[in-house]
Amino acid sequence: MSFGGWINAIIPVLIVPYYSVIGGWVIKYFVEYLKGNGAKLAEDGYFSNFISNGLSTEICFIVFCMFTLIIIYAGVRNGIERVSRFMMPILVVLSVIIAIYSVTRPGALAGVKYFLVPNPKLSWMTVVTAMGQMFYSLSIAMGILVTFGSYMKKDTSIEDSTRNVEVFDTAIAIMAGLMIIPAVFAFSGGDPDTLQAGPSLMFITIPKVFDSMGFGTFAGILFFLLVLFAAVTSSIALTESAVSTVEDELKWSRKKSTVIVGCIMIILGTLSCLGYGPLSFVKIIGMQFLDFFDFLTNSVMMPIAALMTSLFVSK
What is residue 275's three-state secondary structure? Predict the structure, then answer.
């Protein structure tokens, strides 16, 4: 079953580079809102022009990547634990503030209904997408649960910890939906077509929503600060899983393992950065680098890793 173990270790190594690229995009938007350039971010074509600029996206990616690696380099107690204790309460408070503002806007209740009322017309791809989101959100089949589980104290209840993860993950997911969907409905006149999936929603639709607000710059700062905190905590978890595996299996020091994993992250992340710019002509089964890595990990490797882990545990 060693293959099952290694595929769990390889998955975060492939995810965190392109995840850090998106984290770099968040940094860019956060800084622009701090500078008062919210109207510029809402302009048609801004996002596509930004990601096609290889140098600009690369710089933002490196900043995000280095921040993550510095925390990992400091270790579990001095780095990860200290940062998480500071970030997670702020994350929850900001989520509540933005969600309350979102659902109290005129016309927002239509978005709440769209979000919470089940739609019986489900396609197979909707189920597959939901499964991928479940894997990603709960960190299943990427070694994170095993890695952080190994740091737990002996007297910690696994059952209680599992229940807490399930409850808080679901609560934050609902909070995220209440933050975004009602606001989009309120400021788009109730048009569900504005709820474009993926980067388009966050980097194109949401800035347009904020631009239509009376205090859109403040809302933009809060929102992208919140997303940045969430991205950093997830990036830390992914990178720690990869570093700890290299550290244990190859018997390297933590510092050496962090540097090696960091170099791999930067190389693969640079491909994802340039995939929408100078390397846009390079396609893998019709996809650019970032989309390919996302498809490979979420739709192929994670289900295989989950199956292998289930077989191992059931023996």
Answer: coil
Q: pLDDT digit string (tens) for 243-299?
A: 887 887 788 888 888 888 889 989 999 999 988 888 888 889 888 898 889 888 877
Q: What is the DSSP string of 77-120?
A: IIIIIHHHHHHHHHHHHHHHHHHHHHHTSTTHHHHHHHHHS--S
Which amino acid, 105? R
Could you give the percent of the chain with pLDDT greater than 90?
A: 10
Residues 6+ apart with CB under 8 A from 144: 12, 237, 238, 240, 241
d(CA 222, CA 29): 11
- Per-residue confidence at 23, pLDDT binned at 50, 70, 90? very high
Instruction: Give the Cα separation of 94 and 308 in Å (integer).
Output: 38
pLDDT of residue 35: 92
Per-residue pLDDT of 222-236, as tens digits, reads 888 878 887 887 888
Ramachandran assignment for 175, one of left (phi > 0), alpha (psi -120 to 50 degrees), beta (any other): alpha
Rounded distance, CA 47 to CA 137, Å? 26
Q: List Cβ neighbours of 295 (8 Å cut-off, separation of 6 or more).
A: 287
